[in-house]
Amino acid sequence: VKTRRLWPLLPPGAVLGVMYFFVALANGLGKSDHSSVAECGVRNLTGFHCPGCGGTRCAESIIGGDWISAMAYNPLLMSGFLIFMSVSLYLIVRITILGKPSPRIPNIQSKWIWLGVAGIALFTVLRNIPTYPFTLLAP
Amino acid sequence: MSKCLLKHFCNIKFHDLARMANNLQLRYNFGIASNPAFGNAIAIMADWFYGKDNAQHGPVSDLEVRNLISTGQISQDTIIWREGMTDWLPMKDVPDFQTSQVANQGTVAQGTPGAATPYASPQTYAGQLPGAIPTDGLAIASLVCGILAVVSCYVWGLFGVPAVICGHMSMKKINNSQVPIQGKGMAIAGLVTGYIGIALQLFMIVAIIFALGSSATYSP
Q: Is 0.95 exceeded by the ipTM?
């Protein structure tokens, strides 16, 4: 009897759960009439957009199905979300539905991680530049 | 240039000859004929034992060992033994499972000079680059959580705490390890970002308490 392995369902479920929790929390912290969600403490203190700024509105748009607005609020998080969901879907089809063994995880070289960190840092700098092409990156 | 090439091929030939001789010797020790097909026919019935996590596992059949290899539960460095072998050997020195690897990766093996023998050189089936120093998974987890901690509003601590825990565990592991492990820089970065996240969280909690204390309308 072939047993189905269900663990590939966990990560996307957890991410969606965190997103719902986050949106609910932001709405709970916002004004009681729900006219606005809470503002980020970092933004209030420093006036800068951090790489996660617009994340709540992005999550709300994803949940609401308006993925174009989600891209406008935070391109980085939206791209990450799309990549993550694609990989999750691949794993679910491969392992849970087709029952194939999980693919070997190659040894991740640290330079790729640092490249990712540099990418996030660059994104943070660019979205804080207040001239036209860069304002597209700001929420 | 031509001399270099000649030397290159001579080296490969010599390498392969030595390997073949080694395999013959192994097969003689096992009491198996040197014909690979015949050898495999016998091996299917063999019951193997393998060492994993400081414990002996088995007996498992030839097929089960292949399954364990394909699912990554045992590697080419796992030691393995069955009746008739003089001593435990790492998987990569046991000919029975090398033939299966070559059969699975036929396209890779055909392009290499070593494909003249049924046994490919170790580089063709090793899962990763030889000599590559592995990166600690905990360090990567720490850095990822640390980045999420800095960018997540209101709930910095939600990712900051795991980032700090993973970071300290990774640092301990890397510092105490006999073999080199990459990822110390990532662990440090994860620790720094994790602590920043926790500091922001504490700051916000204090700010809320003050705001509630002064009974002012406060939007965090």
A: no
